[in-house]
Specification:
The protein is α/β, with parallel strands linked by helices and about 475 residues long. The protein has one domain: Amidase signature (AS) domain (Amidase signature (AS) enzymes, Alpha-Beta Complex), CATH 3.90.1300.10. The chain is about 35% helix and about 15% strand. It is built from 13 helices and 15 strands. The longest helix has 21 residues. The N and C termini lie close together (about 10 Å).
Length: about 475
């Protein structure tokens, strides 16, 4: 079989491969039950998860109880919505009541929250079946997925490689058929890049679109949001609608008093700014070529595409990240005496760097945030969407923090991740979607970024692109090669 065609032939039609939208349709037609679907997915997990290490905590008994209740509701025509009975996983830095939430750290190895974080509570209220927690790097501050508590997560498209991070467990699960949906967090690209590395759709909502209550301490200012991970745009939109909405306990969410609107499958002509690289940062040649091809495809769909440069101060963005994350981690760890002997060395160095920073450094970083947000707002008076590569490098060795070279040039720890963080600093919605894969079959993705609050516009554009250039039938073979 040719490398680019090396996909899982058994997937179409199997219960564990069905989309969330497809499951709801089958439940409504009484063709399937939530119990048999959950059983099929848990059986799939038994076979596949040991090879991936994607799901690091199961809640099978409560999930079966939830599935039985859902089955009764569908039987009686009393379903709670389109996600009733749909199985999904939750990233290990999002609290789930009674289920260990370790944040990938030995420091929190025994932490079992007494409350669901609000998006989880909303999913339960709509009948979703939460059956597991997915792996993360320690404190979700690295771009690959490994920790001392649970080990390394691997990419279903090539088991030797990483799915990226920090939502690496979440995307590996969905890509391998361990549930059609997952929720993750994105503080600097942690949904979008891993989704891109595994052939999925990953949405980072606008800051405030998904209210956050009862979560872990915020160590990345207001940059981190919860969002959906799915195989299709329709599934991502369904999950986004289920978790989005305001709550008076989260002031940022009050900017969006309503629930998500309908997604236009044929959006009007959009003005797209295509940015192929940020400054002199290297981009893998296959990635650059395939993203440029995707930009032309948007043009063929009737949109106006103009190539340009990054519409913000790239060095200022880098300076923000050198302050906010380290300072946030140092602040969190100060309440844990002896943490230096517990956290992994790389995270210890980050925290030690953060401890050397002063209040003036942090205020200076926030001032840069304000300037970047103002500049991006001005950009969106001229353009509707920014299109970039989702990442600068294809997946690398699963046990290595980052690729040391990209296109033959030296790359630092965030060299592969240069394209995503500006959306977090800007508080903007951003989405990653598959484009043409590499010659070896590894997924490649583009990123679309919209103006503050334009989440539905991005979903509409991706739905249009997916209809013209579908990707959902590509499945990884899970045999250690692509």
């Amino acid at each position: 079989m040719a490398a680019a065609e090396h996909v899982l032939s058994e997937a179409p039609g199997t219960l564990w491969s069905l989309s969330a939208v497809g499951l709801a349709q089958a439940y409504r037609a009484r063709e399937l039950s939530p119990v048999e679907v959950l059983d099929a997915i848990l059986a799939r997990c038994e076979t596949v998860n040991p090879r991936l290490n994607a799901i690091i905590g199961f809640d099978a008994e409560r999930a079966r109880q939830a599935a039985r209740h859902s089955e009764g509701r569908w039987r009686n025509g009393e379903e709670l919505g389109a996600l009733d009975g749909v199985p999904l996983t939750v990233k290990d830095n999002i609290p789930v009541r009674g289920l260990r939430t370790s944040w990938g750290s030995l420091l929190l190895a025994d932490h079992a929250p007494s409350d669901d974080e609000l998006p989880v509570a909303r999913l339960r209220a709509q009948g979703a079946v939460i059956f597991g927690k997915t792996n993360v790097p320690e404190f979700t501050l690295q771009g690959y997925t490994h920790n001392a508590l649970f080990g390394t997560t691997r990419n279903p498209w090539n088991l030797r490689l990483t799915p990226g991070g920090s939502s690496g467990g979440a995307v590996a699960a969905v890509a391998a058929g361990l549930g059609p949906l997952a929720i993750g967090t994105d503080g600097g690209g942690s949904i979008r890049r891993p989704a891109g590395h595994t052939g999925l759709v990953g949405l980072k909502p606008s800051t405030g679109r998904v209210a956050r209550v009862n979560g872990l301490p915020a160590i990345l200012h207001d940059f981190e949001v919860i969002g959906p991970i799915a195989r299709t745009t329709a599934d991502a939109a369904l999950l986004f609608a289920a978790i989005a909405g305001p709550d008076p306990r989260d002031r940022a969410s009050l900017a969006f008093p309503g629930r998500p609107g309908l997604i236009a499958s044929e959006p009007r002509q959009q003005r797209i700014l295509y940015v192929p690289c940020f400054g002199g940062s290297p981009v893998g040649p296959e990635i650059a070529a395939h993203v440029a091809e995707a930009a032309r495809k948007f043009e063929s769909l009737g949109h106006s595409v103009e190539q340009g440069e990054a519409p913000f101060d790239v060095p200022a963005l880098d300076q923000i990240w050198s302050v906010v994350g380290p300072a946030g981690l140092a602040w969190f760890l100060r309440d844990y005496p002896g943490w230096e002997n517990i956290v992994q060395p790389a995270l210890r160095r980050i925290a030690e760097q953060g401890a050397t920073l002063g209040a003036a450094d942090y205020i200076d970083a926030l001032a840069k945030v304000t300037r970047i947000r103002a500049g991006l707002a001005e950009t969106f008076t001229q353009f509707d969407v920014i299109l970039t590569p989702c990442f600068a490098a294809l997946p690398w060795d699963a046990d290595v923090t980052h690729p040391e070279t990209i296109d033959g040039k030296q790359a630092g720890p965030r060299g592969h991740a240069v394209f995503t963080a500006f959306a977090n600093v800007g508080g903007l919605p951003a989405i990653s979607i598959p484009c043409r894969p590499s010659r070896s079959g590894l997924p490649i993705a583009i990123q679309l970024v919209g103006a503050f609050g334009a989440d539905e516009l991005l979903l509409g554009l991706t739905a249009q692109y997916e209809q013209a250039h579908p990707w959902a039938e590509r499945w990884p073979a899970l045999d250690g090669s692509t």
